[in-house]
Amino acid sequence: MCCHYPACPSADSPDREASHVIAAHPDQGWSLLCNGVVLFEDTGLLLPDGTVVAPHRSPVAA
């Protein structure tokens, strides 16, 4: 799916969120990455195979 050089990380790669955004819908709270991952504003993910990755925000320092 990715035509960038160097190629963006695949959807099953640990750094998958580093892929380029190809469709952004901030009003709806999601973006489509070139590797087929849907990234939600709460940091949750929907992978191309239908797998859901729960939000993974960094813990806030006290």
UniProtKB/TrEMBL annotation:
It comes from the Bacteria. InterPro entries: DUF5999 (IPR046041). This is Uncharacterized protein. The lineage of its organism: Bacteria, Bacillati, Actinomycetota, Actinomycetes, Streptosporangiales.
